[in-house]
Amino acid sequence: MRAIRYGLALAALGAALPAAAANIFCCQDERGKKVCGDILPAACVGRAYREIGRGGVVMREVDAPLTAEQRALKAAEERRRQEAEEAAKEQRRLDAALLQTYGSEADIDLLRERAEADTVASIKAAEAKIVEARKRRKKFEDEAEFYKKKTLPPEVAKGLKDVDAEILAQQAMIEAKEKEREAIRAKYEDDKRRYQELRRTRARTP
Fold first, then answer.
1. What residues does each domain of the chain span?
2. pLDDT tens digit sequence for 137-148
3. What is the three-class DSSP state of 72?
């Protein structure tokens, strides 16, 4: 009923305007009282208002200016929207590259096996170097037995130190390659899962 009375009031107001009359501007002031004028009333500045033409027809509605908090929220929402668009765009690029890289799931398995084989070879090579280093260390240890109560010759002390450093370096290499191997497995598992999803989506698309 209130909306009907408001519409009738607008119609009556529009009908009362002369034929050449300009549009009028109406709003509610800070006390909730309706204020109108043929130019925007001072009470309507900074508030939501309506521009009304003849016959009470609302020509446009203007929202009140946003508060500082509302502007901050709107800016944050816009940033989230842009970030979501960028993320979606990047995902489309990655998906296209994935489909171009692999022709089938078998391709994914084959490339994973090759990548893993490289890391396994590096691990075995490092393990072999550790075995050789420990053999050299045993020789230095045997030689050091003759100097239990004496100062070790510099070359023996240096030999033990160098061999220990080499063993530690190769052990670090093995640890790094083991992590690399796990990363390779995770990458190709993710690629395979995404590839399957994309193929299913294409199969469902008419």
1. 2-62, 66-101, 104-204
2. 999 888 888 887
3. helix
